[in-house]
Amino acid sequence: MRKHYDFSKMEGIKNPYVKHLKQPVTMRLDKPTIKYFKSLSEELGIPYESLINLYLRDCALRHKKLDLKWAS
Description:
mainly alpha
């Protein structure tokens, strides 16, 4: 970096996209689900958390709903 740049007088601004950032959550997932996404993660070279997020986002965008039938 050049010596004549002076960043000491710069004023910081808030990130305008902060509302669109990811929100940390805690989820309890079963081991086979984690194992599946971790193996897919190794195959694709993407973190498994990102794969889970992409899958859930796709479900939300397509308005997918589970067909649950409870035993009576």
